[in-house]
Every structure is written in C-alpha cells, then in structure tokens.
Amino acid sequence: MTSFLAIDLNKCTGCRNCELACSAKHTNSFNPRRSRIQILKDEVQNLVVPMVCLQCEVPLCQQACPTGAISYNEKGTLVVDKEICIGCENCVTACVYGGIEIDPQTLKAIKCDLCWGDPACVKACDYSAISLVESNPEGHKARKHGVDLAFDTTKIKTGEVAE
Q1: For the chain, which residues make up each domain, given as ranges?
Q2: Are 9 and 121 in contact (CB under 8 A)?
Q3: 78: how many CB neighbours lie within 10 A of its CB?
Q4: Are 63 and 94 in contact (CB under 8 A)?
Q5: Average pLDDT of 85-111?
Q6: Cα(152)–Cα(107) distance, rounded to whole angstroms?
Q7: What is the pLDDT of residue 163?
C-alpha cells in the first residue's frame, strides 16, 4: 500500500528540524534550501506552513514533465529521476501545493521521496506534527485536514469560482 505525509499545523512550531534532517539525509549537508520539505514562515502574521509533496492521486507535476523524469518507484512513491530531469521547472509550476522545488545546487527538480518508507523529517519532528500515513480513508482524512488547515491559514481560496 502506498503512503504519504500528513502534516498537523496545530502542532508545527516552525523549528525547521524537518528541513535539516531531510537535507542531511539527501545531500549530506545541513542546507534547508536543498530540503524536500520547506517551511513557509511569516512571524509577523504568526504563519508557519510546512510544504511537502502530498503524493497526489493525479499528480500534475508528473503530467507536466516533458521528459518523464517523475514516476513511481517500486514502493508506489512518486519520485524524480535526476538523470532524466532537465530542470525546466514545469513540475514546480504545475504543483498547486508547493511540493516540488528546484535544487539550487544541481538545478534539478527535488521532491519528497518518503526516504524509502522511513522519512527523516518524521523522526526529526519533536512535536509529532509530521506523520507517515497509509493511503486509506483515515490517511486521506489526515492529509485533507492538513491541506484544509494550510489553505485556511494562508487565506488561499480553493474550489470552483462562482460567476
């Protein structure tokens, strides 16, 4: 069964331990800009929103990739093949959740790969704000709750536009 991350914004303090753990695991450096999870933070507005790939059922990033660099691995996780990626940024533009970035060093797309089932960010979060959940009704409910809260917090409107 596939998995994805669920974020509880009510527990996130914005400490950025998840960013450091992720960048250390993937790049052997403590560089938040190279992390697959990004913390949006505005202290004036008391805004803290972790942004990470949601492993969408219909991944727009994959559809936007002209080279086919975004595909599913054997665990069912959507990943980027850095050998195929050309760094065009189409995937970044396509992702409405901000779950994919361009690595500032390699200039290739990076996104959460769930650390092959053992996410470093989950282990690094002292507040249990990040959890790895299964793709089942409870997991989808946890993910949706996090997304809804993030959109409410940032005042982003979703849904159909009334004419």
Answers
A1: 3-154
A2: no
A3: 23
A4: yes
A5: 96
A6: 32
A7: 40
Alpha-helix residue ranges (DSSP H) falling in 7-136 = 17-27, 60-64, 90-94, 120-124
Say yes or no to pLDDT of 87 above 70: yes
Q: How many residues does the chain have?
A: 163
Can you tell me the distance from the alpha carbon of 97 to that of 66, in angstroms, rounded to the nearest whole number?
Answer: 20
Asked if residues 25 and 17 have their Cβ atoms less than 8 Å apart, the reply is no
| Class level of CATH domain 3-154 | alpha beta
- Tokens 């989950």 label which residue? 122
CA atoms of 30 and 23, how far apart (whole Å)? 6
Listed in sequence order, the DSSP H helices in the chain are: 17-27, 60-64, 90-94, 120-124, 137-154
Whether the CB-CB separation of 125 and 117 falls below 8 Å is answered with no
- 120 close to 129: Cβ distance less than 8 angstroms: no
